[in-house]
Design goal:
- The longest helix has 14 residues.
- Strands 2-1-3-4 form a four-stranded mixed sheet, sandwiched between helices. It has a three-stranded antiparallel sheet with strand order 5-7-6, with helices on one face.
- Helices cover 31% and strands 19% of the residues.
- β6 and β7 form a beta hairpin.
- It contains seven helices and seven strands; from the N terminus they run ααβαααβαβββαββ.
- The relative contact order is 0.16.
- By secondary structure, the chain is α/β, with parallel strands linked by helices.
């Protein structure tokens, strides 16, 4: 809300506050994982909720470090490898929070918001009463930036989604098929916006807005 009012910039090198975690757990977390934990943990608490973690590249910096070690002929750490896989953040969150419900990791390609919301809508339609949807991303290593796009800064956004009647203060989200003949050109990549999660955050803070998700889908946020 402070960012939306123009009081702070949504950029910087400061790492997310995860002081609520034991010191041993904090040391294992990358800056991306810390952002994801700080964002999702308050929504999960001690509840056993399904978790859907959507990230295009996941722990890209960890993976690049491991590949660099392989290229240099150095030995790999099994722990570092285990923390680099695409479902590492979802797995660590589920262990920390004691989640026994499904915890899924989804790679969203160029359109992570579309992939995340479509998957979440499918889970809710199949009878899941409530879930936590987490988007998290970090800048790619310099080597990859000529062939793949990524945000300029680490960003994590977590949402609680449910099909139950809205409670006071809740927002409603509708996943709609968009009109390709509308005034906005089709979205080819979420990364056309340097920080693709910020328009979503703006709509949630404002309590209204329509976001193009790509390939004929849009998200409408309303009170």
């Amino acid at each position: 809300m402070r960012w939306r009012r123009g009081e702070i910039e949504a950029a910087g090198e400061a790492q997310a506050d995860v002081s609520f975690l034991p010191a041993m757990q904090r040391r294992r977390l990358s800056p991306l994982a810390k952002a994801a934990f700080a964002t999702a943990h308050p929504l999960i608490g001690d509840r056993d909720l399904p978790l859907l973690c959507c990230s295009v590249h996941g722990e890209a910096q960890r993976t690049y470090s491991l590949l660099s070690d392989v290229a240099a002929g150095e030995s790999l750490s099994p722990t570092a490898f285990g923390l680099s896989v695409h479902n590492a953040i979802a797995g660590q969150l589920s262990i920390l929070c004691g989640i026994q419900s499904p915890a899924l990791a989804l790679a969203g390609g160029d359109l992570p918001l579309q992939a995340g919301f479509l998957e979440a809508a499918g889970m809710l339609a199949e009878g899941v009463p409530e879930l936590v949807l987490l988007f998290c991303e970090e800048p790619l290593p310099e080597l990859y930036r000529s062939s793949a796009r990524s945000p300029r800064h680490i960003c994590a956004t977590a949402l609680t989604l449910r099909t139950a009647p809205a409670e006071e203060g809740d927002l409603r989200c509708s996943l709609l098929q968009s009109d390709s003949r509308g005034p906005m050109p089709p979205l080819e990549s979420a990364f056309d916006c340097a920080e693709y999660q910020l328009p979503l955050i703006a709509a949630l803070v404002d309590g209204r807005g329509s976001l193009p998700l790509g390939q004929g889908w849009e998200l409408k946020v309303h009170g």
